[in-house]
Amino acid sequence: AVIIGIVFYILINSRLSVKNILYFIPLTLITIFLSTNFLLSLERFNLLLQYLNINSRTLNLLLAGNASSDSGRGKLFEYSISGIINNPIIGTGMAGDREVLGAYTHNLFTELLLQYGLIVGSFFIFIIIYYLLKSFLYKNKNELYYVFFATFFSNGFMKLMFSSSYLMEPMFFVMLGLSFLVINKRRNLNLFYTTK
């Protein structure tokens, strides 16, 4: 699906020419081959990764037919909700989820609510979502901005919805800093143009 999306993006955003069509045909054939031989392709890709000393837990689960396994995250979520209910006002404090659960929550929102309580945690969640949306909707003619934003969003935010902790992810803070910078830059430009 990703490869097909990239192929169509290239095709739509480029002029139809002989050169582009010559790029499009091999990409389409590769896509058809990979989709019809999906498991074989995954097995070979996994062998390549193992040869490079890279281990992919998700790929191993897919190949073993256990892709729906949550590795105990469902229980962590249940315990997190119990912790939020038990400490709704002040929470458990920064990194308190490790004390309550014996691990981090593997979800940014439950981590913030558990650590800081419903009021402060909800405020932090609102601020994060607000700045991310403003950054996402920022009109910028430079396509490189969107590449950077997508990179930091996927590594700094989406990862925290399923794994890790914001306390251990510097990309999360880089993403927030860039979001604040973009929003404040736009405000400063608006102030500059309205005062003259």
Given as residue ranges, the uncertain stretches (5+ residues, pLDDT < 50) are none
Secondary structure tally, helices: 9
**Main sheet overview:** none
- Give the amount of beta strand, in percent: under 5%
The percent of residues in helical segments reads over 70%
User: What structural category arises from helix and sheet content?
Assistant: mainly alpha
Give a brief outline of the structure:
The chain is an all-alpha fold and 196 residues long. The protein has nine helices and no strands. The mean pLDDT is 75.
What does this structure look like?
The protein is mainly α and 196 residues long. It is 72% helix and 0% strand. The chain has helices at 2-13, 18-36, 38-51, 57-64, 73-86, 96-101, 108-136, 143-156, 170-195. α8 packs antiparallel against α9 (170-195). The longest helix is centred in the middle third of the chain and has 29 residues, at 108-136. The mean pLDDT is 75.
List keywords for this structure.
flat; mainly alpha; 0% strand; 196 residues; single chain
Q: What is the topology?
A:
Layout: H1 2-13, H2 18-36, H3 38-51, H4 57-64, H5 73-86, H6 96-101, H7 108-136, H8 143-156, H9 170-195
Helix pairs in contact: 1-2, 5-7, 7-9, 8-9
